[in-house]
Amino acid sequence: MGMGIVLCGLNGSGKSTLGKVLAEKLNFRFIDNEDLYFPKTDSRYLYAAPRSRQEVEKLLLDEIHKCENFIFASVKGNYGNDVIPFFHSIVLVEVPREIRLRRVRERSLRKFGSRMLPGGDLQEQEENFFALVESRPENTVEEWIRSLDQPVPMLRVDGTKPVDENVKIIAEWLGLTASTCEP
Q: What are the residues facing 157 on neighbouring strands?
């Protein structure tokens, strides 16, 4: 069995950004939860037609089977018991709440511009998403990690630090040499 890494953290922690760079440096497959949930069938709004949880669980397993070394970016890795054995380690990306919430709004503005502002056609959807993000308890991810039947090694990284610094920390923790991480 290969190495599966769950890169988790609350919205705005930088999971996808860190995960993409880490996957490239390690030559791992990058799987983003957002890509599994949202098939991008509507070019005007990327989140228009979410898949069901069951569909996402199946797609995730399919993605894992395509490449035994993978990084999965998600708030939590709670996608059924069939997936857990593939998780070699968990990296929890931590960022203070205020910074995360600001990042989420800034990302939305970059993606959708004035469409998410008052009077825009996406204002309601985005405000609902912001409310969801704000309502999540800060210990959401840690509660999931504690709930695992089988313990999985976990590393905490500071998502406010430079991505390359966190890539190096993670690679060293995984037992990979710095040269392994060079592009």
A: 93
